[in-house]
Amino acid sequence: MTAQSVRAASAMLDGGAFDVERYRADFPILTTQVRGKELVYLDNAASAQKPRQVIDAIAEFDRASYANIHRGVHHLSQVATKAYEGARDKVRAFMNAEQDREIIFVRGTTEAINLVASSYGRANLQAGDEILITHLEHHSNIVPWQILCQQTGAVLKVAPISDEGEIVMDEFKKLVGKKTKIVAVNHVSNALGTINPVDEIIALAHEVGAVALIDGAQSAPHLAIDVRALDADFYAFSSHKIFGPTGVGVLYGKAALLEAMPPYQGGGDMISYVTFEETRYNRIPYKFEAGTPNITGVVGMGAAIDYIQSVGLDAIGAYEHELLEYATERVGAVEGVRLVGTAAKKAGVLSFVIDGVHPHDVGTILDQAGIAIRAGHHCAQPVMDRFGIPATARASFAFYNTKAEIDALVDGIHQIRKVFG
After folding, report:
1. Among the four 130, 139, 286, 316, which has the fewest Cβ within 10 Å?
2. What is the DSSP string of 193-252?
3. Which residue ranges make up each domain of the chain?
4. pLDDT tens for each residue of 40-72
5. What is the C-alpha separation between 10 and 42, in angstroms, rounded?
6. Residue 317 C-beta-side C-alpha neighbours within 13 Å
7. What class has domain 65-310?
């Protein structure tokens, strides 16, 4: 399928309600040829692509404004510091946090969760206390809590999910009790796309005096986040999921909690005074930002937030829902294909298996047609175990994808069915 035919088909199918071609033009990589075919990029849940506006902002910062931040008295350091702290304020507004000091820059969602587990968890949990997660979690929202349990004697509890891939809320409620100290769930499942009722979950946690952490890695690109409306204690997401650079992300925490938590790492910017006898720690958020940070990455993430807001999350969500419905209907209609994860509320993730074909073979054959999907357990092996499968093929959508690209995916699946009989 040529670039011209994809544009023509998408214009016809999308009906002009959302000007997808306008936004596709912002993403240089979408014109790439893969094995002689036009790239169809459907691996956005792993990493979304970057628009030209973000690429240019990163390049311009490195070219004209780069220096180490904070404490520097020279011009470039002051310019870089202003850009870095300006990005913090963009994140605050993006999440509707109350204060900039509630925004901590980390390497990504994984480090954010580890920070909370190590700092808040070790300071506040003891033997017999309980941490509640769900069967939907990414490994990054399982393993840090397992480590914390080993260190403190706390107990990890896991709420079940239904055959549709939804949290069984009646069972979840039964697991929330006086021993519950931390509730940690994802907002959107990376493996299935399920949108979880995090507002209800946070309220249940607070009823018993527990804190709630929300893994927002998959929600931030698709849904408007309002940490104050949710009353989330902690909320984390990664830059590379929201069309920004890798190696940087965000932990939001309520100021009172962050103030009371001990440092996660030592050195660099997290100190205010050091002698061999004692160290006094910096104020938040700097108490949790030891060492020279990913300054360029933070600036790039700020540019990505600017870009998302220029498109509008409401428009993004509506268009991606249209894509998901179209893909669900078309892929689900192929003989021998089974969809995994059919929750009533989903973001742009479509996981599936093909009878008699390993998902890795699905991904490999689709790649020959220039179609990029993800095949594997998606760092969510307990989810695969729940459905009795080793892996799925996963197509995940962004607002720059088109129905014509979904048609190309379906054509590829039909070819796979022919190859494997």
Report:
1. 139
2. -BBP-HHHHHHHHHHTT-EEEEE-TTTTTTS---HHHHT-SEEEEEGGGTTS-SS-EEEE
3. 3-48+312-419, 65-310
4. 999 999 999 999 999 999 999 999 999 999 988
5. 15
6. 15
7. alpha beta
Which residue, 396, 407, 394, 398, is CA-closest to 1?
A: 407
List residues with catalytic annotation.
Answer: 379
pTM of this prediction? 0.94
- CB under 8 Å to 273, separation ≥6 — which residues? 279, 280
297 closest CA partner among 54, 82, 97: 54
Residues in the chain, overall count: 421
325-353 pLDDT per residue, tens: 999 999 999 999 999 999 999 999 999 99
Backbone phi, then psi, for 67, in 5-degree steps?
A: -165, 165
Fold adopted by 3-48+312-419: Aspartate Aminotransferase, domain 1 (3.90.1150)
Distance CA 408, CA 37 (A): 11
The angle at the Cα of 384, spanning 380 to 390, to the nearest 5 degrees, equals 110
Q: From the CB of residue 95, how many other CB atoms can be counted at a distance below 10 Å?
A: 24
